[in-house]
Known about the structure:
Helices cover about 65% and strands about 15% of the residues. By secondary structure, the chain is α+β, with helices and mostly antiparallel strands. It has one domain (about 1-155). A four-stranded antiparallel beta sheet has the order 1-2-3-4. The protein starts with a helix and ends with a helix. The mean pLDDT is about 85.
Amino acid sequence: MSLRLGLAVAFVAALVDQAGKAWVIRLVTDPPGARIIRVTPFLNFAFTLNHGLSFGLFNTDAGLNAVLFTIVAGLIIAALLVWLARTRDWLMSIAIGLVVGGAVGNVIDRLTRGAVVDFIDFHIGLWHWFVFNLADAAITIGVGLMLIDSLRGRREARN
């Protein structure tokens, strides 16, 4: 049951990520040249291609990065799937599924575009956070749930 739950969450996370990216690509490229759409006073949709890692780190050699980061992500996804197959906890299954789905969403971008599509731009005044995507959000939420699960386990162990 936990394996199915985690795989379903991964599938939905990757699907929602890819649908969101396809939608925003159409949105910001029509009319041609449109790159930033103001949604609220603190949120823009800003189409960017990230050839590097999280937060634009190592955003230099696009060709090498696409291959290297895809291989690394594939190894991480494989390890997470082994962990998912072994877990019996529903919260951890959801957490791992979110991380796997987010990683798969970004790998799809690297394989099809050579870079990851980022578009969510939160800001306060002129201070902008790093532009990210729904896959990054899924990974972040998944890691947060893993941390919650680890704290939950410690509390139960004390009782």
